[in-house]
Amino acid sequence: MYINAASTISHQPTFQNSGFSKHIESLETDTELMSPDYKAYIEAGLLRRMSKILRMSVAASVDCLKQAGIEQPDAIVVGTGLGCLQDTEKFLTNFLTIEGLLPPTSFIQSTHNTIAGQISLSIGNHGYNMTHTQNTLSFEHALIDTFLLLGEGNNQILTGAADEYIPFLDEAAEHLLPASKLNLTSGASFFVLSNNQSEKSLAKIKDVETIGLVGNIDAAIDTFLSKNFLNVSEVDLILYADFDAPSSMVSNAYQYFNEHYQANSILVNYVRLSGLYPTNSAFALHYAVDKMQQHPEIKKVLIMNGLNKINLGLTLIESIEA
Amino acid sequence: MAIRITGIGIVSAIGLSVAENLDSLVNGKSGIGPVKYLEVDRDYLVGEVKCSNEEFADRLEVKTKSASRTSLLGLAAAREAWGKNRENSQLRTGIISATSVGGMDKTEGFYRNYLDKNNPDYHVLKYHDSGNTTEIIAAELGISGYINTLSTACSSGANAIMLGARLIEQGKLDRVLVGGTDALTNFTLNGFRSLMIYDDQWCRPFDDSRSGLNLGEGAAFLLLENDKSSRISGSTTICCLSGWANAADAYHQTASSPDGKGATLSIQNAIALSGLSALDISYINAHGTGTKNNDLSESMAMLNVFGDNLPDFSSTKPFTGHTLAAAGAIEGVFSSLAIQHGYIFPNLNYKTPIAETGLVPCTELQTWEPVLAVLSNSFGFGGNNSSLVFSVNKWND
Question: For A220, which residue in chain B has the nearest alpha carbon?
Fold first, then answer.
């Protein structure tokens, strides 16, 4: 399927900044979300009540549809690992501390599908509206659903992913993973995906696979590459996630491509660029697409999402010419 | 379209197995009553599953003893639906669950201690995310590969069934366990109360005096198989899933449109996909939560699609309570049972038709006519509307 538009709001200067992949470097700690002027994308009445994840998602969606030059997609598909944390935390605090009548807004907006729902509401879309939440593989599952939708005769799908940072996550991380210093961030990336190539097409997604409770990672990559008739050496760039491993030298990606097959592949740990959130493989997809526009020699990119050790996501992206 | 349904499993307020649930449905026994298991700070009428977490963990012999109640309920239902099936290298197998609360039953206890600075156990947070509830179920059943979770509020369970069917239809999987699970939590009890749609009396779907819902908890799973899988596993087909559709109402974050736009679309599209006509539907298992807004909007949608030929319809939520993300799956199992046994289940607690529509649901168990096709509706926050069509086993095998 073709990627006809891409839009990302993150801690990096990704929004409305084609060519960002040339300029961005590893993210420092304690950075802030680089928010655009949301009023330009979201009606003031809706914006007022929106949490961070909703603002990011609706703005990126609206921007993406505008880039693609379409008003209504046939469907809206969203992946989110942890959903609307800000509203969830707020309602938890409210009902545990307030006696008597509670304001309902944060409860209403705490469900994961508020993101996709608010996008449909903002643009008045009556199509298929879905929310996948399989922690680190949520975005890949949204992509698989998109492949199904295109196979069913739909043509323009708005697909994306979002997760939001709240300060409580730092506390939780300190208790659960005391040894690592995690750079927790927020991000939302949306794409217009289609069966049809247009002059706007940036790249194509050849295949996506998720392997939950993965046993043998090397075998899973072998199968995925051979299913796509690819030799290891044909993958020009590997974007991988491996936040447990501070050095790429010990990552699964390095072991597979450079040690096992001696492919001397270019490896980029995208968690260092995006910061850590469960659906940052969507950031990686936009990064790959942007990189391919800047470097025509990059024809094939593999996103190897091993953010969570028990799960593996594999996404193969090809340049239009490939 | 036709996907085989070859296994069903359920735990709800009216029973811990398919047989117990069927018995309660046939005998008009509601499972709704005062809270017994969850720690709450006021009285509520709820549809609790009559089993504590400890009893569940023992019954199920789970490896992860500290799993959330959402996982335990889901595992109980998934085990029953999975039956004696095993991993098979010839068959691509997946699991899709649906949940809205995930591990919130654990998290809210943690968060109370956290706010009180009362030595909170951060480790329970590992069970918070919705995806984890499904991974625990998958691990216990020995399923790996395609493991996914949907969360679209109260339509989630129906959407899991739909996604499974679509994956089989397009040849991505040979068989897939689909369903939903949600535990009762203070989070959702307080949430629906804050919306002023929690009824402190028994919920009364489609009754003019209805004033809200009673929450329930539970889980249900269905095993969907293609022909190859059914042949290899030697399973018996209970009925078929023949149509499905999801549409966005795009009217309001929580309220349904007064003309039932999204619901009308989902019902029409599901029936169209099934290849049946509206006249072929024998029974509608309605979403019917008992809120003013849902039941009126759903009635309008049913009238939009069926006009003067509205088939028998009922909401089974007065039996189970509204089980949120599990509802679509629980009602999918009830729809399968309706076809398997030729039953139409009664809408309890109904007396007076809604003034605006005059529609009268089925109020007595019907057993005298075969049930050939059932429409099941599930509508959720965010204007998320889903409809499924179940029909008799077309292969007669």
Answer: B145
User: Is it the case that residue A243 has pLDDT exceeding 80?
Assistant: no
Task: Verify that B174 and B113 share a domain, yes or no.
Answer: yes
Sign of the dihedral defined by the CA atoms of residues B104, B105, B107, B109, in that order:
positive
User: What SS3 state is found at B37?
Assistant: coil
Chain A partners of B383 at a C-beta cutoff of 8 Å?
117, 120-121, 129
Query: Is residue A231 domain-shared with residue A107, that is, in the same domain?
Result: no
Which residue in B183, B258, B264 sits closest to B219, CA to CA? B183
Q: How far is A12 from chain B (nearest CA, A)?
A: 26
CATH of the domain at B293: 3.40.47.10
Which domain does B39 fall in, by range? 3-233
Alpha helices in chain B (DSSP H): 18-26, 53-60, 69-82, 104-115, 130-141, 156-169, 186-194, 227-233, 261-274, 292-306, 317-320, 327-341
pTM recorded for the entire structure: 0.97
Neighbours of B85 (CB within 10 A): 22
A133/B149 Cβ within 8 A? yes
- Residues contacting B375, CB < 8 A, separation 6+: B267, B270, B271, B281, B283, B284, B285, B311, B387, B388, B389
Does B396 map to a domain? no
In A, residues 147-206, which contact B (CB 8 Å cutoff)? 148, 151-152, 172, 175-176
Give the range of the structural domain holding residue A214, as residue numbers without chain letter.
203-318
Q: Are residues A158 and A305 in the same domain?
A: no
Furthest-apart CA atoms within chain B: distance in Å: 62
Among the candidates B203, B233, B263, a domain finishes at B233
Domain assignment present for residue B397? The answer is: no
Whether A133 and chain B come into contact, CB under 8 Å, resolves to yes
Tens digit of pLDDT per residue, chain B (397 long)? 789 999 999 999 999 999 999 999 999 999 999 999 999 989 999 999 999 999 998 888 888 778 899 999 999 999 999 999 998 999 999 999 999 999 999 999 999 999 999 999 999 999 999 999 999 999 999 999 999 999 999 999 999 999 999 999 999 999 999 999 999 999 999 999 999 999 999 999 999 999 999 999 999 999 999 999 999 999 999 999 999 999 999 888 888 898 999 999 999 999 999 999 999 999 999 999 999 999 999 999 999 999 999 999 999 999 999 999 999 999 999 999 999 999 999 999 999 999 999 999 999 999 999 999 999 999 998 899 999 999 998 776 5
Mutating which of A72, A106, A128, A136 best tests the B interface, going by the most B Cβ atoms within 10 A? A128
The CATH code of the domain that includes A264 is 3.40.47.10
DSSP A255: I
Same domain membership, residue A224 and residue A169:
no
Contact between residue B159 and residue B383 where contact means Cβ atoms under 8 Å apart: no
Same domain, A89 and A23: yes
Tell me what ipTM this predicted complex has.
Answer: 0.97
